[in-house]
Each structure stands twice: as structure tokens, then as C-alpha cells.
Amino acid sequence: MPLPNRAAPVPANTSFRSIGPGGFVRQSPGEQSAPSTPAPPRRLVPAKPSAEIAGKTSLLDLNDRICKWPLGHPGEPDFHFCGDPVNPGFPYCVAHCGQAFQAQMPRRDRRPPPPMPFGGPRVR
């Protein structure tokens, strides 16, 4: 003969907590703890440049008064910028302004476009 299902008696001062999604225990607003105080900000100390780029202008050194002409490839460790004083009103020094801003020849003096292959487009 099977025994009848009897639940164990529950003491009167016991509180039940609901387990939410993910198995977290839900807290009522009165049970929540005060937020912790944030950690003080860390002082960032810049790393010392390697010997091969010491004395060269890096991206962090750029401002409005120095030449921003890139030297080398950005993926290489010795990539840097010119760093000479700028030509007023331009982002580059006088030497690099000559390379960056070249005068264009008048349209009449330019070479005509090369002929199209096989005599050009077909006309009907």
C-alpha cells in the first residue's frame, strides 16, 4: 500500500526566493546592496619609444604647427611623420607642399586622349 504524499511542515519564519532565468536569485529592493564605489582612475604613463624611432614624430606628436607628411608604411615599426615647421596655411612643410600640391597644366596644353582600339565606336 503506497504512503500518502505529505509535504514536510514549513516553519512560519522561512522566506522563499524566486530563481530567475539563468539561475540568479531575485532580490527585493530592500535586499539589494548599495553600489560599490568606483576604483580611482589609473594614471597612464606613455611607453618609451624604441631606439629606432626615438626623435621621430609619431601620430601623438602631431599638431597644427608641424608637417604631417607620412614617411614609411603605417604597418612598419619605423613609420613616422616629417615634423618640420609647416608652410602657413598648409598641412605640410614647404618641401612636401611642392610634392602634394602640383599645378595643373591648362586644358589646351594637355595631351589628347589615346585613340580608341579598332577605330573607335561603331556608328550606324
Could you walk me through the main structural features you see in this protein, from its secondary elements to its overall organization?
With 124 residues, this protein is largely without helices or strands. Helices cover 6% and strands 3% of the residues. The chain has one helix spanning 94-100, and strands at 70-71, 80-81. A two-stranded antiparallel sheet has the order 1-2. A hairpin with an 8-residue loop joins strand 1 and strand 2. The radius of gyration is 37 Å and the shape is elongated.
Task: Explain briefly what this protein structure is.
This protein has 124 residues and is low in regular secondary structure. It is 6% helix and 3% strand.
Low-confidence runs of at least 5 consecutive residues: none
Widest beta sheet: strand line-up: 1-2
The ordered string of helix (H) and strand (E) elements is EEH
Shape: elongated
User: Would you report the number of β strands?
Assistant: 2
SSE map:
Blueprint: E1 70-71, E2 80-81, H1 94-100
Antiparallel strand pairs: 1-2
Keywords:
2 strands, 3% strand, single chain, elongated, little secondary structure, 124 residues, two-stranded antiparallel ribbon
